Amino acid sequence: MASKIDFDTVIPRRGTGSLKWDKFSELDPFWVADMDFASPPEVIQALNDRVAHGVYGYALPHPGLVNSVTSYMQRTHNLTINEEEIVHLGGLVPALSLAARAFGKSGDAVMTCTPTYPPFIGIHHDAQMKIITVPHIEVNGQWVFDWQAMEEAVTPETKIFLVSNPQNPLGRVFTKTEIIQLAEFCEKHDLILVSDEIHCDLIFDTAKTPHICGAGLPEKFKKRVITLLAPSKTYNIAGLGYAFAVIRDDSLRRKFTAARGHTLPEINCFSFYAAEAAFNHGEPWRQELMKYLAKNRDTVMKFVREEMPGCKMADSEATFLAWIDCRGLKDLMKGKNPATFFEEKSRLYLSDGAFFGAPGYIRINFGCSHSKLVECLEKMAKAIAK
Questions:
Q1: Chain segment 105-151, per-residue pLDDT in tens
Q2: 25, 65, 181, 281: which could join 276 in a potential S-S bond, CB 3.0 to 4.6 Å?
Q3: Distance in angstroms (rounded) separating the CA atoms of residues 378 and 382
Q4: Separation in Å, CA 204 to CA 232, 315, 319, 325
Q5: Residue 159: which of 194, 197, 113 has the closest Cα?
Q6: CB neighbours (10 Å) of residue 210?
Q7: Whole-angstrom Cα distance, residue 286 to residue 38?
């Protein structure tokens, strides 16, 4: 494989059945969290090899896949995981729903902090539960937990806490101190901590902001932590539908899997091989990706701060998603939300902050060619200038 990967080439996606590009085909899309880059060559080759076999029956996680997952956990998170501690899943969102059904009942509550990934504030419906949301607060330009508000909001009926780390859409990588304090909060109130870590391999500076994996928390928390991981965002294979949970406590794992029933689909035979190839061979590609995304991240932050008066953006530590405060455009938008404003003025489709629990904000996916990103930002600046 060449040492330099070409992320500048724009790959046409419209007309391919792409959710991102074809759902609103008249608009330029920077919304749903998949990237416009081709996956690593080794992933493509693994899929080609599997297709060439010609038989696509029901699949099991084969030994190569299991070994790739356990090796990844050791290499990336310094954790020795047994095969029995892994629960293979056909996606991360179904796992959130599964957790709600496993550990809650009608009248109980799910708790999370906003803004957050929209399914976090929707999966409670699957178990007829309630939702408790506590806003993150911005302190010295950094988004943090509001511990006092969390203590005031939690109830005896609260059973589950959902956390996104690295945080989507804020781009925060929570510190060890914060994650330990969150685990202690869950222990105090007897909550199951479900940690969505799907963006953990998309951290820009792992020396400055290292990822703290839920599966590696101190032993006393093991009985209440479910860690959700996937190669999907990092290697742009979300459409193949593979994720996994690491649940180190036997009792917790049995309760989680028992709730599955017949509600989750079979995992398709291609996803196992794509995940195996990504974990085993994708690291050089990932390193190049992070350099490119860092350039895009820096471009967004600089442009918002210098060319978009009325908009603000905190420093982003991870993900390919920018969270932009557009509340300063209130007079200009004349009652419209910012996503609608930029749709009408710039023909852009951006994620509306209201879906994340924070009206007045937008989320921009910068997992695209740098030229395409600059084009998007310039259209936004032009709309504001008008």
A1: 999 999 999 999 999 999 999 999 999 999 999 999 999 999 999 99
A2: 65
A3: 6
A4: 18, 11, 8, 21
A5: 194
A6: 12
A7: 12
Distances (CA, A) of 72 to 79, 234, 277, 366: 9, 13, 11, 26
Amino acid at 383: A
b/e code 286-323 from CB counts within 10 Å (16+ = b): bebbbebbeebbebbbebbeeebeebbbbebbbbbbbb
Q: How far apart are CA 94 and CA 364, in angstroms?
A: 24
CA distances from 286 to 26, 218, 275, 281 (A): 32, 29, 14, 10
Residues 6+ apart with CB under 8 A from 333: 326, 341
pLDDT at site 63: 98
Domains of the chain (ranges; CATH) run 19-41+283-385 (3.90.1150.10), 53-281 (3.40.640.10)
| Cβ neighbour number for residue 15 with a 10 Å cutoff | 9
Q: How many CB atoms lie within 10 A of CB 325?
A: 19
Question: Which tokens belong to 23?
Answer: 């759902």
Measured between alpha carbons, how far is 249 from 254 in angstroms, rounded to an integer?
9
pLDDT tens sequence across 339-373: 999 999 999 999 999 999 999 999 999 999 999 99
Asked whether 203 and 209 are in contact (CB, 8 A), the reply is yes
Q: What pLDDT does 2 receive? A: 43
What is the C-alpha separation between 74 and 329, in angstroms, rounded?
A: 47
Q: What's the full length of the chain, in residues?
A: 386
pLDDT: which is higher, 266 or 157: 157
pLDDT band at 262 (very low <50, low <70, confident <90, very high): confident
User: Torsion-angle region of residue 25: left (phi > 0), alpha (psi -120 to 50) or beta?
Assistant: alpha
Locate 283 and state its tokens: 């690291």
Read off the pLDDT of residues 40-93 as tens digits, 9 standing for 90 and up.
999 999 999 999 999 999 999 999 999 999 999 999 999 999 999 999 999 999
pLDDT digits (tens, 9 = 90+) for 202-222: 999 999 999 999 999 999 999
